[in-house]
Amino acid sequence: MFNSAERRVSAARARAAMAAAGMLIAAACLAASPAPAGGKPVSASAKPSGYYGYGAPATPQQIAGWNIDVRPDGTGLPPGSGSVEKGADIFQTHCAACHGAFGEGMGRYPKLSGGIGSLKADRPEKTVGSYWPYATTLWDYIHRAMPFYAPQSLTDDEVYALTAYVLNLSNVVGPDFVADQKNLASVKMPNRNGFVRPDPRPDTHDTACMKNCKPAAGVKIVSTAAGRHLTPRTTGPLDEQQP
Amino acid sequence: MAGKSHGERDSLHRIESEDGTPASAQRRGFLKKGLFASGGAMLSGLSAAALAADAGKSLPPDVPQWERQLGPGVDDRPYGRPSKFESSVIRRNVPWLTATTTSSVSFTPLQDLRGMITPNGLVFERYHAGRATVDPHRHRLMIHGLVKRPLMLTMDDLMRFPSVSRIQFLECAANGGMEWRGAQLNSVQFTHGMLSCCEWTGVPLSTLLDEVGVKDGAKWILAEGADGASMDRSIPLDKARDDVLVAYAQNGEALRPEQGYPVRLIVPGWEANICVKWLRRLKLGTEPWYTREETSKYTDLMPDGRAREFTWVMEAKSVITFPCPEKPLQKHGLYEIEGLAWSGHGKIKRVDVSTDGGVNWRPTRLKGLVLPKALTRFGVEWRWDGKPALLQSRVIDETGYVQPTIAQLRALRGVNSIYHNNSIQTWQLNADGSVNNVQLG
User: DSSP state, A217?
Assistant: First the structure.
């Protein structure tokens, strides 16, 4: 936008210079021309695109290799498909060691299923089924980051199959579901409408009271980290911490 | 060592250079290099045995042994490192917190830092797929999407653009996230150490956006890393044009691998997760991408079961770093209470300190530079009479925002939002000088 405005200014200047018979007229034209038609002022620091000319154009082939992001409307999904059944096999091979055979999560590795309806609970379970708003994000994340030890090693069809399986673990789709480029964006996630924006902060309104801000008798310790044995050592070299 | 007394062994052990090489071995090295004529005479002025005998006498009127021997030369440490006596000043992690250290966090030892700058080796780490090892010669930054000139930049290309340097804090949105339900970690390193402040050097993102020419309709940018998670976040174009930096240096040297070498984003005042490391791609688009990191993570679950999304700003926060659980008091008398304050909205206006759990407060002195979206150090003199005390700090930033208590935050947000706990920290100072992390009702 800045650049087209600047170009318009330059063109006006060039035309003015060509048409002008004398310096006075040219000066008048120049004086009249700087306000761009768009109304927004041109920032003093903004340079036209290509001003520096560094680097090389990113070619369509280069972009295709790295352009992996997938949007909630399905834009970016490649051709392909995969069934829940196929996904179950792949999951046992590549995923179950951390996520558990049914997505229940091993140790502190993420739980993928269950927890639907738990978000108001004292201990909510945030899983793909209970929390994630878009099925497309699941495809995108598996494709870019999983399996954890070998990211970007799965075929597109395998990613579709895993997506279908993980969705089925939470009964978001049925056991016969076959995920593909066309249908993933229309999968209705249970928590699709569970997110709010814009950010409502600042939502707290503490005051900078200086004297007698509350009754001294009301100052009570309700929680202490002392004696909980949750804190690793913070003195001594790290190697002394190891068992 | 046979035949030597225990005391002698001890003394010999102490006559070492910083890297642990015994002095005798150094002398052998000296002789081998044929430098005896120039420096050997000084070294031989005291035999190893004589040095050993004197080692225990280092205080006046005695002269310490390090003043009577030759130290290693300028070729000993081509890249310097801290004194061996500082070996406990290190990043540490909490093993029970995560399933693996490759998707985890390490914490900056705030209790041992001075001034406002975090040394490069102590900047906290947060990995989603371990520390990526990126060859700068084969690294590329691609800028595409709704742009007029899709661009591929080498690191050399990137470094040709006019650069700027800015001092900014980085704080993980989950800093203090373990403390929502109550005081858990008895350590300022672990309660507040997902925090750092460096001078970052790089190219303003606005310069690169002008260079590629942003097309009408573009409102968001996807930033993507070259790590094993291809970590990616959506950034609104207004912020990108405002103050975001494509940074390749920190505190005067190339980024550390932990910090995204060779290039990362710095998004001043916003949660550090959005400051994508090992940056490989910027894509302009009309809408946010709703990536995994901005839906399933880095969203704040509220008590009504709904979650706030795109909560980027790190609101004003402060903490006392002396005293703290790691730095107890020893004797009664005068001390300077010290700490750090920061705000994602700009500069620090004032920091107050209370020693009675927030009944009475007094203002502190801001020390050194007071810069927007940077750590600011504060200090105030205090005479400890030996009685138990409840120490707190409370920051007010230039917008007038006042740091809240944990009770105020919990009343609004419950205990399950994980992120953005910027509450006032309470340190319980006991009569014996020890300090505990506590929360007040």
Answer: G
Assess contact for A95 and A146: CB atoms under 8 A.
yes
Taking alpha carbons only, the member of B421, B417, B420 closest to residue B405 is B421
* Chain B interface disruption, residue of A123, A223, A238, A241, most B CBs within 10 A: A223
CB B392, CB B424: distance < 8 Å = yes
Model pTM? 0.86
Between the two ends of chain A, the Cα-to-Cα distance in Å is 62
- Reported as a single tens digit per residue, the pLDDT across B214-246 is 999 999 999 999 999 999 999 999 999 999 999
pLDDT tier at B48 (50, 70, 90 boundaries)? low
pLDDT at B180 over 70: yes
Cβ-contact B393, B353 below 8 angstroms? yes
**Smallest Cα–Cα separation from B154: which of B40, B226, B262, B231?**
B262
Query: Would you give the distance in Å from CA A177 to the centre of its chain?
Result: 26
Q: Please say whether the beta carbons of B123 and B105 come within 8 A.
A: no
B262: preceding bond cis by omega (within 30 degrees): yes
Burial of B319 (0-12, 13-18, 19+ CB in 10 A): buried
Question: What are φ and ψ of residue B257, in 5° steps?
Answer: -50, -40
3-state helix vs strand vs coil in chain A, percent to 5 = 35, 5, 60
- pLDDT tens figures, B282-318: 999 999 999 999 999 999 999 999 999 999 999 999 9
**Cβ distance B377 to B338 under 8 Å?**
yes
Query: Residue written as tokens 């044995």?
Result: A229
Collapse the DSSP code of B191 into the 3-class scheme (helix H, G, I; strand E, B; otherwise coil) and give the result: helix
Per-residue CA distances from A126 to B305, B310, B397 (Å): 11, 17, 34
Please tell me the distance from the alpha carbon of residue B439 to that of residue A202, in angstroms, as a whole number: 22
Mean pLDDT, residues B130-156 taken together: 98
By the 8 A CB rule, do B391 and B430 touch?
no
From CA B169, how far away is CA B197, in angstroms rounded? Answer: 4
Alpha-carbon gap, residue B276 to B126, rounded angstroms: 11
- Least CB–CB distance from A202: residue in B153, B361, B401: B401
Residue B394 DSSP one-character state: E
For residues A202-223, average pLDDT: 96
Q: What tokens appear for B192 in the block?
A: 């507040």
| Other C-beta atoms lying within 10 Å of the C-beta of residue B78 | 6
d(Cα A78, Cα A75) in Å, to the nearest integer? 9
Distance from CA of A241 to the nearest CA of B (A): 10
Distance CA B363, CA A135 (A): 51
Distance from C-alpha of A84 to C-alpha of A82, rounded to nearest angstrom: 7
Considering only CB atoms, which chain A residues are within 8 Å of B222? Answer: 69
Beta strands in B21-93 (DSSP E): none
What DSSP element (H or E) covers B153?
Answer: strand B151-153
Residues of B in contact with A5 (CB under 8 A): none
Mutate one of B102, B308, B434 to test the A interface: name it (highest A CB count within 10 A).
B308
C-alpha Rg value of chain B to the nearest Å:
26
